[in-house]
Amino acid sequence: MGLGCIANLNSVPFEGFMANGFAAGGQRTATQCLRFGTRIITETISRVDLSHCPFRYWREGQEEEDEESDTADTVIVATSASAKESGMSACAVCDGLNRPLAVIGGGGDSATEEATSKLTKYGAHIYVLVHRDKLRALDIMAKPLVDNPKISILWDTRWKNLWTRNVQTGSEKDLDVNRLFHDLSIHEPATAIFRTQIQTDPNGYIINTSVRGVFAAVDVRDKRYSQAITSVGSGCIAVLEAERLIVESQEKEMMGE
Ligand SMILES: Cc1cc2nc3c(=O)[nH]c(=O)nc-3n(C[C@H](O)[C@H](O)[C@H](O)COP(=O)(O)OP(=O)(O)OC[C@H]3O[C@@H](n4cnc5c(N)ncnc54)[C@H](O)[C@@H]3O)c2cc1C
């Protein structure tokens, strides 16, 4: 998602080239940015130095020490997060509409909540595949799942794609579902190149960039909502913060501070 759509800011959005598995353009288009004359660069950033301003960054293929870096006065990290396992969906609202669905490894708190609150709302019927004969989720979270008539829990189950096997009875069956969801809590934020330089939580989500001039927006810091509409708001806040910082710095420079 291009974030630097503010006129008169010399923003340089990089959209990556299959970065983190996404085609150029991310999951949205950047038409609005183009209207403001923004030039979007389809290259991946593979190395950054955020130790001081101007910040330095290197494009893929140029990350050697002696290669000259590009520089920026502010950086907005919006590299997104994706499902850890390819071929699986991790967005209940996006991919769940009116279809029979299966949640793989869905016995924990987050997956249980997601299956009950979102998948049942959108999917036709939900199969939750659980390794053991009980759920990992707390009882208070598990009860709505167990009681929901739209959900069938397949206990003691092993699976490969749509094939399932009950390890107690030995019975096997192919699930008749349109979509497989991995445990919906498992996403991987694309923050590897930033992790030693800005603060992340144990899963790699950026909590607080803690570096003045570096901002994080959208799915790299939001594991709760992850929707297009919330992305726009989060991106907009980051851009306005970056703009404010640049204007403040320019004013200080003019005042000779
Ligand atoms: C399959 C799918 C369907 C979805 N459907 C819906 C929907 O129907 N409704 C809805 O509201 N939401 C939907 N979403 C969620 C929504 O698209 C995201 O919440 C939103 O796009 C996140 O914005 P973002 O900027 O974090 O990521 P993205 O829009 O994915 O943009 C991230 C960009 O960063 C680039 N990038 C990553 N690493 C680097 C790097 N090192 N260097 C340079 N560039 C890099 C990527 O190439 C990409 O262009 C869907 C998501 C997915 C995956």
Automatic annotation (TrEMBL):
Gene3D superfamilies attached here? FAD/NAD(P)-binding domain
Q: List the GO biological process terms.
A: cellular response to toxic substance
GO MF, one annotated term: oxidoreductase activity
Domain FAD/NAD(P)-binding, by residue range, is 60-235
Would I find ATP-binding among this entry's keywords?
no
The record's listing under InterPro entries reads:
FAD/NAD-bd_sf, FAD/NAD-binding_dom, Ferredoxin-NADP_redctase_2
Q: Which Pfam families match?
A: Pyr_redox_2
Sorted alphabetically, the keyword list is: Flavoprotein, Oxidoreductase
Family indicated by similarity: Belongs to the class-II pyridine nucleotide-disulfide oxidoreductase family.
Q: Report the PANTHER family cross-referenced here.
A: THIOREDOXIN REDUCTASE 1-RELATED-RELATED
Name of protein? FAD/NAD(P)-binding domain-containing protein
